[in-house]
Amino acid sequence: MKYLPLALLVLFVTPVAHADDGTGAVREVIDATAANWLPESLGNEEDVFSEDRLSRLFSKDFRTAYQLASRNPPYDLAEGETTGFPFDYDPIAQGQDGCSFENIRIENDGDGQIAAIFNNRRCFSDDPSEAPDTVLIFHVIEEGGRTVIDDIYPVENHQTGKSIKSELKQTAGQ
Predict the structure, then answer these.
(1) For the chain, which has fewer Cβ within 10 Å, the N-terminal or C-terminal residue?
(2) Structurally, how many domains does the chain consist of?
(3) What CATH number should be reported for the domain holding residue 69?
(4) The predicted structure's pLDDT at residue 95
């Protein structure tokens, strides 16, 4: 009887500790990006692909592709710098221009796919039908005992678009 409370604690806590399905990692990336697109964040943007986030939230293959692509950014590096942001747009917001994120939804589609759906185009039009949602499919894998993001696919015209990781690998090869 004296071990019953401990057994109950293990029974109720253990499933929660192992219930990481990747939605937390996706949520952190989306929330950080959304915060960057708030008007009050201008000039104080957070690095969504910081070394900390890359090591905690992304797979080794994605990290390597990002780090290698950072050596070939689409702009000239400042003197003395050896790496830079490897995109000429925000790959999460899917553009260089956009609005504050609205109606953010994170949905686990199963089979290692998590959809992030949000609207960041509404400020461009008064007609909501002309401001479709942005949809990203995050592929997550198990690595080192954790679920991490291995790739991100934008959905364009109801079709899966080009993989962000393949874009990084292409940039790294230039």
Answers:
(1) N
(2) 1
(3) 3.10.450.50
(4) 92
Over residues 63-91, the pLDDT tens digits come to: 999 999 998 878 776 777 766 788 889 99
The verdict on residue 143 lying in a domain is yes
For 92, the domain range is 4-74+86-172
In a domain, 80, yes or no: no
pTM, full prediction:
0.83
Label residues 30-60 b or e (16+ Cβ within 10 Å = b): bebbbbbbeeeeeeeeeebbeeebbeebbbe
Q: What is the model's pLDDT at position 158?
A: 87
79, part of any domain: no
